[in-house]
Amino acid sequence: MNTQRILFIGAGRMAEAIFSGLLTMSKEHIESITVSNRSDEARLDYLKSTYDLQVTTDWKSAVAHANVIVLAMPPQAHEPLLKELAALTAGQLVVTVAAGIGPSYLEANLPANTPAAWIMPNTAATIGESMSLYAVGQHVTDEHEEVLEMILKGMGEAQKCTEEEVHNLTAVTGSAPAFLYYFAESLIDVTKKFNIDDETAKQLVVQMLYGSVAMLKGGTEPSDLREQVTTPGGATAEGLKVLQNHDFATIIDEAIAATNKKARGN
């Protein structure tokens, strides 16, 4: 794989997670990284002083030099930007990290034969522990996929999907961490009701979650782990009964469906 010249249009937390991972894991494959932001020069100054990269407030001037362009911006910002970008691209790989913006959308708004891809990381990318999904357009070559895999490696684990699968699974890998954090918040609040101070309550809940996830990652089925904790007729079984009576599984199903619907713009 040739060394890459990568332009990030957008300088937020996800962009930072991606290029910091690249500079940590794949620096030998990077010729240059340029990060652009039109309005927040203080942010650009911080990034330039922290990482080995270039910054600019004028992304258009950097397009010709790049062979990979990463669109790290909200979904609603894509349409106007792609109109500007379409007049400047010359076969570069264009990658978006925005919810709901698949490679077919990029292809429809960029010149014919533009290689396009969609990466959906989650916020754990900032610590190199994301479960990222990605899909590629019809003009992506094996060499392009090597570049995508390099980008993904710096963020954690990844799974190649069809575009439709990414649409459906983004709620599971991208949004569901928020559901888990809400669960953690609720447990911490309950713990504090027993006259436990904030810091101790947080420590108890966070370590419980960490240990539980570590056991899940060991490969044991969730149902088997649940049964190991649950003595028939015991205290845990009584708590699970409350969740079942409130149809916990259906609540999760509905939360995923609502997330997917919103991500598709419905």
From TrEMBL:
Annotated Gene Ontology cellular component terms: cytoplasm
Gene Ontology molecular functions: pyrroline-5-carboxylate reductase activity
Compartment(s) of residence: Cytoplasm
The keyword Oxidoreductase is assigned to this record: yes
EC number, as in UniProt: 1.5.1.2
Boundaries of every Pyrroline-5-carboxylate reductase catalytic N-terminal domain copy: 5-100
Catalytic function, reaction form: L-proline + NAD(+) = (S)-1-pyrroline-5-carboxylate + NADH + 2 H(+); L-proline + NADP(+) = (S)-1-pyrroline-5-carboxylate + NADPH + 2 H(+)
Record keywords: Amino-acid biosynthesis, Cytoplasm, NADP, Oxidoreductase, Proline biosynthesis
GO BP terms: L-proline biosynthetic process
Residues at which NADP(+) binds: I9, G10, A11, G12, R13, M14, A72, M73, P74, P75
Domain annotation Pyrroline-5-carboxylate reductase dimerisation: ranges: 163-264
Pathway membership, UniProt: Amino-acid biosynthesis; L-proline biosynthesis; L-proline from L-glutamate 5-semialdehyde: step 1/1
Keyword Nucleotidyltransferase appears in the UniProt entry: no
Family: Belongs to the pyrroline-5-carboxylate reductase family.
Function recorded in the entry: Catalyzes the reduction of 1-pyrroline-5-carboxylate (PCA) to L-proline.
PANTHER family: PYRROLINE-5-CARBOXYLATE REDUCTASE, PYRROLINE-5-CARBOXYLATE REDUCTASE 1
Name assigned to this protein: Pyrroline-5-carboxylate reductase
Upper classification of the organism: Bacteria, Bacillati, Bacillota, Bacilli, Bacillales
Gene name of the record: proC
